[in-house]
Design a protein that fits this description.
Strand 17 and strand 18 form a beta hairpin. Strands 3, 4, 5, 6, 7, 12 and 13 form a seven-stranded antiparallel beta sheet that branches. The protein has a six-stranded antiparallel beta sheet with strand order 1-2-15-14-8-9. Strands 16-17-18 form a three-stranded antiparallel beta sheet, with no helix packed on it. By secondary structure, it is of the alpha+beta class. The protein is about 25% helix and about 30% strand.
Length: about 350
């Protein structure tokens, strides 16, 4: 655990916005940590591509890699040739690896020791949602009232992650890479990216998993958040929390702030709730924002809050990596299916429930 303050900083930096297809709110809070190392992106609609882009970067060892990723990933992604040609999965992968390349080449970041997670949600103008992830920040979709994980936590103890780490010359001790880093994938962290190996074979890699999902009328909202939230509440509990407050006619902005307040440790001695926290809530509109709020309020008016305030952190009870290293999906016409790809590119179709992390 990082260093903490004697009292938490509970001021919240919040924003909200939207377009014809989505409305969103985002909120960030430093909490008990001595500095704020999170960063995030909120683009409701890019003027050139009509795409929506949301992302959370959870920094460690400093804030510089997270801030750099926030500033540079949108251009790396949206202006890439792969994106312009409609190769969105490839564009996302290139943008993650491109952050590492750009950091290495920037003289202002020579010997920069920090790293960060990255969970990125891209909604194309064709209404296809892509979630790209490296690390343990998380994306969870509420569809038909259910919590569906669209990302997987990359932990050193995952079988495929351990295999890559050891093959690259590293080791896993105390559930950490080389006994130090609790993540097996991240942007930055160049201490673990030495040698002549390809980026995807490094001890710690920025190479992301990518999941693709075609939006449909059952999809209600998406939650992106750092592990400061997910360590305190499970996926279904967070979705249930949002539903409860939508039933009480709270705004997305208020719900983000309430969620962080619920997860914040009440005392310095608590194990959970000590971290920086960032939450983004994205609502998918079929009609107007006002109508979306009305529908959610009616649907969830009787929803109760989760009983547990600080449940034990749940890490990958059912991991995509137990199926295969790289997770993607195709547009196969069945919005309730996701296709995962193994190392050789052979597709394996599974129900969405099978990729849920909790």
């Amino acid at each position: 655990m990082g260093q903490t303050l004697s009292e938490p900083i509970t001021e919240k930096e919040s924003e909200e916005g939207g377009s014809q297809r989505v409305i969103y709110a985002a909120s960030a809070m430093q909490g008990w940590r001595i500095s704020m190392e999170d960063a995030h992106i909120t683009i409701a609609e890019d003027g050139d591509t009509q795409a929506s882009l949301f992302a959370v970067f959870d920094g460690h060892g400093g804030e510089k890699t997270a801030k750099y990723s926030k500033d540079h990933l949108p251009n790396l992604l949206l202006k890439s040739e792969a994106f312009k040609q409609g190769h969105f999965r490839e564009a996302l992968k290139q943008s993650f690896l491109g952050i590492d390349e750009a950091l290495r080449e920037d003289p202002l970041y020579v010997n920069e020791p920090s790293g960060c997670t990255a969970v990125v949600a891209l909604l194309t103008k064709q209404n296809i949602l892509f979630v790209s992830n490296a690390g343990d920040s998380r994306a969870v979709l509420c569809t038909g009232g259910r919590a569906i994980a669209l990302s997987q936590d990359h932990k050193p103890t995952n079988k495929k992650e351990t295999e890559r780490i050891e093959k690259a010359g590293g080791f896993v001790r105390l559930a950490r890479v080389n006994g130090k880093l609790a993540l097996s994938r991240a942007l930055g962290d160049f201490e673990y990216k030495m040698g002549n190996l390809p980026p995807e074979q490094q001890i710690v890699t920025a190479f992301p998993d990518v999941v693709e999902h075609t939006l449909n009328e059952k999809d209600e909202f998406l939650i992106l958040a750092c592990d400061g939230i997910w360590d305190c509440m499970t996926n279904p509990e967070v979705v249930n929390f949002v539903q409860h407050h939508l039933g009480n006619k709270e705004s997305l902005k208020n719900i983000c702030e309430l969620l962080m307040g619920k997860c914040l440790a009440k005392t310095k001695g608590q194990v959970l709730g000590q971290d920086n926290m960032t939450v983004i809530l994205v609502a998918f509109l079929n009609e107007t924002p006002e109508r979306w709020y009305e529908l959610m309020a009616e649907k969830y008016k009787d929803t109760k809050l989760p009983e547990a305030s600080y449940p034990t952190a749940t890490l990958n009870k059912r991991s995509i990596h137990e199926k295969n290293v790289s997770s993607e999906s195709n547009n196969n016409g069945d919005s309730n299916k996701v296709v995962l790809y193994n190392d050789g590119g052979t597709p394996q179709e599974v129900d969405n429930e099978d990729i849920s992390l909790n």
